[in-house]
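Quick question about two entries, pasted in order.
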Amino acid sequence: MTYLWIKAFHIIAVVCWFAGLFYLPRLFVYHAMSTDTASQERFVIMERKLYRGIMHPSLVATVGLGLYMLYMNPALLKMGWMHIKLTLVALLIAYHFSLGAIYKRFAQGTNQKSHVFYRWFNELPVLFLIVIVLLAILKPF
C-alpha cells in the first residue's frame, strides 16, 4: 500500500514539473517578443518564481520519489523499458537545467535567441512526455 502512495505522489510531482516544463519556454517566447522594460522585468519575475518555486521543487520530488520507488521495487531496473525511461528522464533533467540557464540570460539581459527558437524549444518536453508515458503504461521491452 505504501508503494501506491509513493507512486501517486510521484505522479503528482511529475504533473507539476511538466506544467513548468511546458509553461516556462512559453514565457520565454513572450519575453523574447517584449520590447518595453516593464514587461521584461515582469517576465523575469514570473520566470524566476516558476523555475525556483514550482519547477525545481517538483523536479526534486519527482526524482526523489522515483528513486524511492526503484528502491522499493528493484526488479524494475531489470526491465528494458525502464532503462529507456530513465535515460529520457536524465535528458529532461538536462532540459530543465538548460531552462534555468536561459532564465538567467533573460534576467541578465543577454538573451540572443528569437521567439521562434523558443516556440520550437517549447515542443521538446511534449515528445518526452509521450514516449515516457507510453513506456510506463505499455512496458514494451
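Here is the second entry:
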Amino acid sequence: MNLALRVNGRTIHADVEPETMLVDVLREHAGLTGPRVTCGVGLCGTCTVLMDEQPVSACILMAPLAQGTEITTIEGIPEDDAVVRCFDRHHAFQCGFCIPGMVLTGRAMVAEGHAADREEIREGLGGNLCRCGCYLKIIDAIEEAAQ
C-alpha cells in the first residue's frame, strides 16, 4: 500500500503493508527517532505523536488511518516553544526517554486549556510514564507553560 503522510509539515511517502503501525513508518521511512516503541500496546507514551494536534499512541495506530491528517513529532516542535522552554527551565527530564511524549502531550493540554491546575495536568499525563520519576518537575513545567 502506498502512503502519503504529512509529517512535521512535509509529505512522507512509504510503501507498507496495511497493518503497519504509524510509529514504524515514522522511524523507518521518515528517519524520525523521537517516537519510540517501548510497550507496543499504547500504555507508556513513548510513541506519542500529535495527529491534528491531538496526542495519539503511534505504536497502536495503523499508518493508513493517519492519511489526510497532520502528524507532529517532537522533531517538528521548535526549540523556542513555550512548553520546551519550561521543560528546560524546570529541568523536567533525566534520561529523556519519555520527554518527547510528555512535551507533545503537555503542548496539547496547554493548547486545549486542559492544564488549569496540577490535578488536571496529572490526569492529562496519565498515558505517559516516566521511569526516572521526574513527574513533579514535568508538572511544574506544564503548569508554568499554561500560565
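Reply: The first helix runs from residue 22 to 28. The mean pLDDT is 96. Hope that helps.
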